[in-house]
Amino acid sequence: MPDLNLPLLPLPTRADAADHTAPRLLIIYTGGTVGMAQNSSGGLVPMQFGQLDQKMPDLARLPFRIELVSLPAPIDSSNVTPADWLFWAQLIGRHYADFDGFVVLHGTDTMAYSAAALSYVLEHLGKPVVFTGAQVPVGASRSDAQRNLVTALEIAAARYPRSHTVRVPEVCVFFNDVLIRGNRAKKVESQQFAAFKSENYPPLARAGINLEFDDKSIRLLPAARIKVHTQLEVGVAVLRLFPGITPDVVRAILSIAGLRGCVLETYGSGNAPTAPWFLNCLAEARQRGVWLLNVSQCEEGRVVQGKYETSSHFADLGVVGGDDITTEAAVTKLMFVLGLGLDEARTRELLALNLRGEITL
Ligand code: ASN
Description:
The chain has helices at about 50-55, 80-95, 110-120, 145-155, 245-255, 275-285, 315, 325-340, 345-350; strands at about 10, 25-30, 35-40, 45, 65-75, 100-105, 120-125, 130, 170-175, 180, 185, 195-200, 205, 210-215, 225-230, 235-240, 260-265, 290-295, 320. By secondary structure, the chain is α/β, with parallel strands linked by helices. It folds into 2 domains: about 10-230, 3-Layer(aba) Sandwich (Rossmann fold); about 235-350, Rossmann fold, CATH 3.40.50.40. The strands form 5 sheets. A 9-stranded mixed sheet has the order 1-5-2-6-8-9-10-13-14, sandwiched between helices. A 4-stranded parallel sheet has the order 16-17-18-19, with helices on both faces. The radius of gyration is 21 Å and the shape is globular. It comes from Hymenobacter negativus. Keywords: Hydrolase.
């Protein structure tokens, strides 16, 4: 694990550093297009983000105390690993008491996975952790970086007017004027600014002239001490079904050495072939202790095991229905729950449970 004592760089803003009433926010820069520039062969690569304030002059107008911590080696988010998630979670835990909110600058490609992972790992989160990034690098004309970051910071600082309680104590994704619960986010666009969609759940806020929060959709939990988990099980896989999938493909995936869990991407409301070879493959995997989580390939709707004959075998086989979870949230949920090292009954219970608002039971 890299050193948690990374230096914090204060950014000049309208707030006086000594004004303890001004919200204190921490930006964690991990990489992504937001901070990229072209290398000698023309490809976009992440750069250090030292002079963030010079590239985003609007930050200086914000009435917040803002500090920046940049990871020593920023990455394109295609290179993100579970070890990164655990490190960022530790970093947030380390500074949790000192800051009112956190903004994670991250590449868009795997942002939905990272936000979902952190939603599980940061248990009893009581402060905002807002992921954002950009489709166009900060230095380039028409970049969406400043706009996304400024509003993400405003969300991280948001409080209810009278009670001053935190408005969004969740891991979320803010992008192109929409705030989405982190474990409901999906990247749906690689060319447009509207890169993310909230699956099966309303957006938590929209940014127009004003920031309009949908308070009834935001999770407010009883106050509890934050718990930063430190284990994720990496022995997971995704098996996406398609007509014509062969026994060799299914068997090869389900018999990977060290496999502990697999997301089964099924059809419609959780349906799959009923061919004996297919059901046998699943039964054998279950006998070897591999957990199977049933997630629909459909973007909307939910898994209802038993609705059709083609999903009626799953309950007997011990396949867990994923309800309306996204693949991103399912992969990271398997990593998290299996990383807890619980017994069979409790593992099954947690996989089916709504842990962080990732499913609508
Ligand atoms: N490849 C980039 C990344 O995910 C894409 C982006 O940030 N827009 O890091």
